[in-house]
Amino acid sequence: METDTKQNLIERLFSAGAHFGFGKSRRHPSVAPYLYGTKQGTDIFDLEKTSELLTRAKEAVKTAGAKGEAVLFVGTKEEIAPLVKASAEKVGMPYVTNRWIGGMLTNFSEIKKRIARLKELALQGESGELERKYTKKERVLIGREFEKLNFNFGGIRDMEKMPNMLLVVDPRHNHIAVREARTIGVPMIGISSSDVDISKTTYPVVANDTLRSSVSLLLKELVEAYREGQKDHQETKEKEQHSAPNQ
Q1: 92, 96, 180, 233: least CB-packed within 10 angstroms?
Q2: In the chain, where do the E strands start and end?
Q3: Is there a single domain that holds both residue 37 and residue 116?
Q4: Are residues 178 and 86 in the same domain?
Q5: Which structural domain range is residue 140 located in?
Q6: Predicted pLDDT at 1
């Protein structure tokens, strides 16, 4: 049964084009052990090894969900950003899909101030306070400030504390996020093509990180694993509540 499940995953990865890497000239040495070969100058991933890496990453993210830990989804490439955002929203997790602002992790105390300002402006807008307190010209300037803050921090506005894990699509493209996570010791899952130094991520998943079909499949697998963990976490909480003595 386990073999059938693994074979099924490999077939789905193949159908999604997850086996296509970049040209051999762009290959990072750390990826070499996970390659099946090269076809017409393009590196081809060994999907059996990819499936093993994905399974390991799924176990890690499921454990995070079971502990009630926060996973920050990161993917700022234009072609895959909507997929990353949708995946994070499915499990109520924070995300960065527009631009990684330096210090999001290493200077989180300052970032929290910007998030607080974003929430303040949003609340003022919803309550009508902006209309009552400010002139039309002032509201235009405040509107621009809100748009900028929302663009940079909208995906993490509900992130009250540091994330317990990062899920990064293309760690090479999001190298600043990777560097900050490594600096403070936050583990990372990295969906990584053949041009990525996978030694910098805790749980690398080597596969095509640009094709929407490939990224969509990988994110779906990881999100479902996190969801399973969330379900276990909720069940554990309910059992604890039922077994607790009445006050």
Answers
A1: 92
A2: 20-23, 35-39, 42-45, 71-74, 95-96, 165-169, 188-192, 203-206
A3: no
A4: yes
A5: 108-155
A6: 45
The verdict on 13 and 59 lying in the same domain is yes
Long-range Cβ contact pairs of 137-145 (< 8 A, separation 24 or more): 145/117, 145/121
Supply the CATH number for residue 62's domain. Answer: 3.40.50.10490
Strand 42-45 relative to strand 35-39, pairing: antiparallel
> Does residue 173 share a domain with residue 83?
yes
Q: What is the pTM of this model?
A: 0.93
Residues 91 and 206 in one domain: yes
> Would you list the DSSP string of 178-247?
HHHHHHHT--EEEEE-TTS-GGGSSEEEES-SS-HHHHHHHHHHHHHHHHHHHHHHHHHHHHHHHHSPP-
Mean pLDDT score, 156-162: 94
Q: How far apart are CA 185 and CA 197, in angstroms?
A: 17
User: What's residue 3's pLDDT?
Assistant: 60
Clarify whether residues 141 and 183 are in a common domain: no
Whether residues 91 and 117 fall in one domain:
no
Token couple for 154:
């909208």
User: How do residues 58-102 score in pLDDT, each as one tens digit?
Assistant: 999 999 999 999 999 999 999 999 999 999 999 999 999 999 999
Which residues are CB-neighbours of 153 under 8 A, at least 6 positions away? 101, 111, 114, 115, 118
pLDDT per position as a tens digit, 4-21: 688 899 999 999 999 999
